[in-house]
Give the backbone structure.
Amino acid sequence: MQYQSQAVAKPYFIAAIGLFVGQILFGLIMGLQYVVGDFLFPEIPFNVARMVHTNLLIVWLLFGFMGAAYYMIPEEAETELHSPKLAIAMFWIFLVAGALTIVGYLTVPYATLAELTGNDLLETMGREFLEQPLITKVGIVVVALAFLFNISMTVLKGRKTSIALVLLLGLWGLAVFFLFSFYNPSNPVLDKYFWWWVVHLWVEGVWELILGALLAFVLIKVTGVDREVIEKWLYVIITLTLITGIIGTGHHYFWIGTPEYWQWWGSIFSALEPIPFFAMTVFAFNMVNRRRREHPNKAATLWALGTGVMAFLGAGVWGFLHTLAPVNYYTHGSQITAAHGHMAFYGAYVMVVLCIISYAMPVLRGRAANSNKAQVMEMWSFWLMTIAMVFITLFLTAAGILQVWLQRFSDTPMSFMATQDQISLFYWMREWTGVVFLIGLVVYIASFFVKGETRAAA
Amino acid sequence: MDTSATMTLNQDDTVEAAPLAPPGDLAVWFFILAELLVFAVFFIAYAVARTHDVALFAVMQQTLDPDAGALNTVLLVSSSWCVARAVLAVDGARLRTGARWLLAALACGGGFLLVKGLEYADKFAEGIGLSTNTFYMFYLSLTFFHFMHVVLGMLVLAVLWHGVRRGHYRRGRLSGLESGAVYWHMVDLVWLVLFPLVYVLH
Amino acid sequence: MSGTFTKSMARNVFYGGTVFFILLFLALTFDSMATLPKRDNRQNLTEEVVAGKKLWEVNNCIGCHTLLGEGAYFAPELGNVYVRRGPEFIKAWIKSQPTGAPGRRQMPQFNFSDEELDQMVAFLKYMSEINTNDWPPNVEG
């Protein structure tokens, strides 16, 4: 570790992994509820499990992003963090607020929670992914601002690299677009229109800047390729991302009451969205092939390459599959959407956070890389989780195709629930694959506790 | 384009690589490639939509003013020529001439915006918008998307003009100027496809 | 390649391109906002509908159902449920939950008053009258 204050990243990474486990457990509960409908009812109804599953995902990724920023920024800026104390304070505030929110979801009926937390003052709750009580949303903004202040001040007083600037831009964008979660007009179409400004402009916009910055940072470290080379390609890739992604928002405006022309605009631009992901994959492999050193951390390199490939498959290919309006007319809001969502989130964001953790955690623990034994175990977890996710996606895709066929495409369409019964086999297979994913995650965590010979960090 | 290629030869002594080197910065070429791809997909979408409703497109095309389109074509091609002259002038160390050529290019671009703006005003006055019908959706989307490119291109040209007057560019250090120039040629090129496709071809 | 490829140009293109496409997106949004009144059924946005929307939100209906295809995919699409089932069926259905049928997916009991049931129905009716470009493909959603 080059700078003492980088150490604040460690609790962030640990919390991220802990919450990740929670997310997967609730995913398994939901998966089972898909086939055993009354499982855990009425203690944990499906909507609560889903809320916990998706909210935990968002929160742990945010923990991961913040940890990554606290680790990267001092090294990029070549100076200690503006205020490590603030970073630690924010960690506890965010963790406690997050935990309380989850406890609230699980112990109180949602309507009561809304009443207790002042939803009547400003109605923001009950919209997908933005279910958090008002007080939590405000808390997120406060933590985000304190965090942004901290890293922005660090960059301002130190070296301003492109990676740091792109990361800052992504994180500031994340905070700015989150503000739209406070806007909930009573007109449902307007509500939906601007709801996407949080959701889409996050995951297909500013988050991709963060993704690019994290990946570029790790690639510089593990390959030793010139910063200049990596940074200019980073700019090219994120340019492609935003060119296609911003107007690509239009692929959500096909059927929610918005004007018809979005079918053209949305289809055209989002059809090109795989290109930046493809570029990112080519970029990652190219840099690794042109490496100038053999970094002892092979696991981090594997995660970096995996991020490129899986983000391209999940976000690029699976996104493209159903993004054209004539196709989306049939697939919109089906299990195809779920399939794409799972692989895209895993491939792009889960993997890049695990990648930076894989690179940074050994350094934070005082060594250049983990022991060979630990790395082998981590790579096993990589393959277990990644292959499990591929199959989860394939099963959900199969379920989705069948669902579309029976319920939407047929001349004698089946009802929703009758269709669900028809595809339950795929849901069972998805659930078992989910168990494999959990095993992979357990192996991943176990790899942190494997001892063995290590070299001290340079 | 040819003239620019020769200039790259001038500034580069290595024999084997030079003929392949594009003028300007590679970063701009990536951008141009992406933009051309977007336009290409848009044009294909136009063609597909047209085959679904040939009659509507034929009738609606009659409501466009081909003379305005033709005039704009002349303006853009001229401005591209002006930009190419500007690059040549700066390469020959004739900075003031180069700056003047850029101004001429800007004037042509401004003329384009004026003509296009009048066309829009005409259509908007009739209450035509993106949601009028499929043809007008495409006409307005394509031309407005291109219109914005002209505005961006003119901003680039203005920056280049400023740079030329400040003496930022000279033989061997033309990359920035060439980058802006190739971008402007791209804007021109897109119009050369757009105009016949939307205004002329029936 | 002997051609230049500089970071500063790549950065300029990034900023320029990003601003360009944000502006384009804002322009399209501007046009959408002007067009929406003709499509989003706002002339019927009564207080009852607004109250129904709030009920929809504070009971986290989106956590199981889709609404115009957005939400969870665990339970039926409700954007067109008013057309599919009609107001009386909807109310009776909400009142009779959960079914308790073993092994079947369960919907919680929300203890709505009659007034609230009417509000929910008004909201679902409103949703079914939005111009969605003919989505969903059929009444099953």
